[in-house]
Design brief:
UPF0256 protein; 3 domains; aminoglycoside N-acetyltransferase activity; globular; 19 strands; Aminopeptidase; Nonspecific Lipid-transfer Protein, Chain A; 7-stranded mixed sheet; transferase; Acetyltransf_17; alpha+beta; single chain; 23% helix
Amino acid sequence: MEIRPTTGKDLDVFVDTLHAAFGLFPETPAEGGGGVWWSALEMDRNLLAMTADGRPVGTAGAYSFELTLPGENLVPVSGVSFVGVLPSHRRQGVLSAMMRYQLADLRPRGEFLSVLLASEAPIYGRFGYGPATYTHRLTVQRHQAAFALPRAGAAAGATATGSDTGSVELLRRAECGEILEEVYDRYRRAQPGALSRPHRWWDLGAGQPPVSPAPRYVAVHRDADGVPDGYASYSVESGTLTVDETITVDDTVFTALARFVLGHDLVARVVFKHVPPGHPLRWQLADFRAGQASDDTDWLWVRLLDVPRALTERGWFTDGELVLDVEDPFLGEHGRYLLTVRDGKADCVPTDREPDLSLGVSDLGSVYLGGTAPSTLVRAGHIRAHRPGAAALADALFRAERPPHCLHWF
């Protein structure tokens, strides 16, 4: 078997092999090659697995993204996608060979982090990826959608974070592409765990709504000066209003958009598809049980390729010192590092000191963005704490300014 990079000439073979691996048939691209979920492929970053007689049996691809780390630090990451093996060649080492080839290719590119969305949770942990952000669906029955009065001394009509002085405008998806792109870019730069959406994605309509050109209504929030600072993309079908995503870093703006969609006529329920952990919306409703959470799931998985660089690139919010003993079984690597945090910056160097925590690189990926407490993985038996207080210190060190969240699909 041969693993080889692709070129533009391999596009049809790559797409056909990927679809066959998942039992799907390719859509017909719109004029210009856009409008389908795979239209933003970067062919110089993809791989084909070929048999000895030249037949394609597996695919693996990657996108070039920026990831927002705690502290609003932006770093380049490889967004792994398009991973598939034909049913006739599964469990023969094809996937492992492609993953090993791909990881070996990332370091020379200067990328020290790789991320993906896992179609099946058990697969990617063995390649060093760990679930790092989480999301859930929130369904609100409209007849129970009344908002509670704030209890923090706020004036009547205000949210817990202040009075909304802006406005909401209803547009169609086709009318507001530039607004969506601009607002999302501002959001992702401030939200830990968020990924960039390159202009190429918006231009080609690649991915899921509202990036794709699928018909959607968009509630655009504007601040007091008329500048767009948030949006909610939604569709209505059979009495259910489904919100693809609500984009804003301001709780007051989120509340204004939530009020807008929850006030829609001729709708029995409103479904918010992507709500981050700990979001206050349920608490803002007069009936706490009116918001029913479901489909609580992992979303972005993170893989560290250079531990010292990864730990020094993110922001930190507590001072302290930890010795981390990190095992990377898939790449056959092992390192022990002294992590020292002072005034929001970290230094990470090899050490021979006794470890405070022993963990696998996949567990380090899970805690890296602050969405998984190290103590949780200690209690689960995945991380070993070698002294009392080590897990609590790790919790304090690895926390983010707010829960990481990613809703970009790739």
